[in-house]
Amino acid sequence: MTTFIHTAFAKVRTIPDGLLVLTARLGIAAYFLRAGQTKVDGFELTSGARYLFAEEYKVPLLPPDVAAWMAVGAEHIFPMLLVLGLATRLSALGLLGMTAVIQLFVYPASWPDHLLWTAALLLIAARGPGWLALDTPLCRKLCKPTPKL
Prior knowledge:
mainly alpha; two-stranded antiparallel sheet; 7 helices; 2 strands; 3% strand; globular
């Protein structure tokens, strides 16, 4: 039995980072995109979204409509970029910032969900987009290699 467990763990350790990051990118993108879609009907905010941002979410320093449109924009643009693997790290950091705002000002009791989102977003930010991403060929063409110290 011990050999089986060691073999299983050894196999799991061979999963490439690119596959882990792709899974995180698609999973977190789907979550945020679905959340954004519930807030709009065509090109208008739903009455439910207007109510939530005015009465329940109450993000400080921003009028409810501005906060709602910022959330809708972030919940549509960043997930699409994550799916494409374009500006991947920047998109992950944007959603990480949004997660922090939600945790601090909107739903502090939902920290287990936010911790899970944070883990996925930090994986993406730390490891990059992986091999199945538009960032990868673009960076090969445009980015200078960083010197090894």
